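Hey all, quick one. A colleague (J.T.) asked me to put the cobalamin job into the tracker so the inputs and the structure tokens live in one place instead of scattered across chat threads. No bug as far as I know, just bookkeeping. Sequence used:
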Amino acid sequence: MARIAFPVTTCHEFEGVKVLSAALKQAGHQTDCFVTSEERDFAGAVRDYEPDVIGLYATTGQEKWAYPHIDSWRREFSHLKVVMGGPHPSFDTDVLLDEEYVDATIKGEAEQALVDLVAAWEANLSITDIPNVGYLRQEKPCQNPIRPIVQDLDTLPFPDVDIFYKYPFLRNKRVLQVHASRGCQNNCTYCTVPLMKKEWVSDRKREKFNRTKSVDYLCEEILDILARYPNFRMVNFGDAALNMYRGWVDEFAEKWPKLVGLPFACNVNINYLNENDIVCLKRAGCASVQFGLESGSEDVRLHVYKKGYTDDHVERIPRLFKKHKIAFRTNNMMGSPVETLDDMFATARVNRRIRPDGCTVLIYRPFKSTVLGREDFELERVDVGKDIGPSLHHDSQLLRDDVREIVNLQKLFNLAVYLPGGEALVRRLIRLPRNPIFEWIGLAFLWYQHAVVSGYGMSDDFKLGLKNLGQVFGRRVGGTHRYGGESTNQFLDTLDTGLDARV
Ligand code: B12
Ligand code: SF4
């Protein structure tokens, strides 16, 4: 039996960590997670747990946040092993070169791989033949091929929420975070999910990346949580799209209200959505949905982002949301390599026309794990020396002359959408230097969308803000990003819960 600790630097219950914890417990191990903002002495809490293995989840930009802590834990426990998983190490194993911090990585879905890795470490066996595992061989990162992914999500144990809900803030907030599926029908070029779809499957014939839990399993999972944590008043589905398979929402609309009966918010893919789905969502108790509009230009949306949303989808589906009284929020992206500032204002105008209940606006980031991002790196459109931290809220890493305007527009976008005459005003304002007032305006809109439109609740959001306020503007120290709890803008990252999986 080994003891595995999952340090987490965003105040949010991570589905990946929950499912891994459940798999490890099923294999007879002990697990716990440690959320930086929720611990008085975070490093001490992990140390007191006396872990054998540290498991780190990382998106690109946050892969090194725990290094200083690992240093101190390693000094305490000489046998300690560290494994990193999630999107970043799944596509880039260079973290293995930091061998003083990382012993192994796991590519893709890790339920079985992590159990195998921990067992090998426990028995002092070699890890070099374990599928999915990455390790350092002759000073070079070496990635093993991956095993088939779990095809039937119902065969997995329920995600282990207890390691997160030991924290009063997480268990007493209004919204319960849940996942009903994995994968996505679309293949957007700015998103990592399509490359997961390609690289996280083993090439076994008919292996499916897009999977849903059965409605029965999902309802049982929620009831199991609510039996122990009864304070939740709403559910937020973190999936790419709740309408993953036609027919699933029909069954969901039948069973969810009877078995669970909580209102919920979710993401939808509007190119796969018809009026019947919307009626079913409403009947099931859907309070709000969000989808990625991303660009006002159909050409960019269809041909560059390959989003699959035509102008007809973008105009027609929101009318149906309004007809059936479901609030909707759009996700929008500023500053991709193909858009001019005028195009970005066109995105604001489309929003103005379709009148969403809120607009989330993020700054395009060139990930090496996306089709468009890979092109950016190849064509040298990226300011590679510029450290923008992990987030999509703060800065652009593209080599463009109008970065200041883009970043300002991201903050002021909602004024251009909702304020009469807003576009003309915002066109002028974005030429000013970046400043805290714009940041606060952006933050206020984000808070409104999260608290009100997504139903998260004013009070929870306010508390979340207070917890992490110091991190909102304290992200840069001496011009370089300081990895670690103090500087990773967890507040903004956590607020962004609705997400069209692009977050
Ligand atoms: C829900 C979600 C969120 C939630 C929860 C955080 C999270 N990452 O789980 C919130 C809203 C907080 C969030 C925030 C952000 N997110 Co987010 N998010 C997602 C989303 C839609 C689903 C993740 C999920 O739960 N999947 C279901 C579970 C079961 O799968 P999983 O998480 O991949 O876990 C499996 C493996 O990764 C692995 N694994 C997971 N954890 C660990 C840990 C160890 C030790 C090991 C070995 C393996 C391992 O095993 C798991 C089980 O098989 C993904 C898209 C996607 N489909 O992955 C984007 C995604 C992960 N987010 C992304 C981004 C960019 C962000 C933000 C930076 C956005 C921002 N606000 O600026 C922040 C970063 C916050 C953070 N600390 O992670 C990107 C990452 C891109 C990249 N290449 O790095 C993704 C891929 C979307 C995209 N743009 O393509 N996000
Ligand atoms: S951006 Fe959203 S819709 Fe597009 S591939 Fe990613 S998860 Fe799917």
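Adding what we noticed when we looked at it: Confidence is low (pLDDT under 50) at residues 470-488, 496-503. Residues 266-495 form a domain with the Transcription Regulator spoIIAA fold (CATH 3.30.750.200).
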